What we know:
- The protein folds into 2 domains: 5-121, Rossmann fold; 131-228, Orthogonal Bundle (Arc Repressor Mutant, subunit A), CATH 1.10.10.
- A hairpin with a 3-residue loop joins strand 11 and strand 12.
- The longest helix is centred in the middle third of the chain and has 14 residues, at 108-121.
- Helix 2 (36-45) runs parallel beside helix 3.
- The protein contains 8 helices and 12 strands.
- It is elongated, with a radius of gyration of 20 Å.
- With 233 residues, it is an alpha/beta fold.
- It has helices at residues 13-25, 36-45, 62-72, 87-95, 108-121, 158-169, 177-183, 195-208; strands at 5-9, 29-33, 50-54, 78-82, 100-103, 131-134, 137-140, 145-148, 153-155, 175-176, 218-221, 225-228.
Amino acid sequence: MPVQTILTVEDDAPIRRGVVDALKYAGYRVLESGHGEEGCRMAVRQEFDLLLLDMVLPGKTGLEILREVRNVRPTLPVIILSARGEENDRVAGLRLGADDYVVKPFSVNELLARVDAVLRRSPSRPTDVECFDIPDGRVDFARSEVQFASGERVELSERELELLRYLAKHAGRSVTRQELLENVWQIDARGVSTRTVDMHVARLREKLRDDSDEPRVLLTVRGRGYMLGLANG
């Protein structure tokens, strides 16, 4: 079963560290932020399975973040972290679509139990793409290769596979270079050159025999990024 990822947005550093450590010990992958603006950007752009969201944050409040998240990810599981005196915020958060809340101070066992319960009753994320067809061939993720009708096989690197898999899982929409850097390379894209993405796409087009002047598989979306040009097989 794939490791599930949890984004924790909490400005109190000791509390955040305790939550992050507990989640990692329980086997989750964890993303974290201590600021509202950064947390909101991560919440709407990165790939994860559940959001742990503090209500009182610098830069942008938890309610503001939740409102933006619900606009782009209506089914994302969200658990509110709130202090005892923030009942109005908890109620507002639940009305905006939060799945549950935990009142500070809370025990690690309580938090993990609520996380597990919310994830179990939430819709599963789409399964990973196993393969998809391209002109004159097929990309096989299990074998890490492109298989052409002629019988030729071309090996793909792990990064190339992850890039293709991400585009395939989001087929039908354009994906920005920044989004790819954050979810495929797992780095903060602010201030990072997007040429890294462009160079990988150029190499992939060569391996897929996808004409760079008139691509049919890895389409360039001018001013944004890239899109997979074929439906998944």
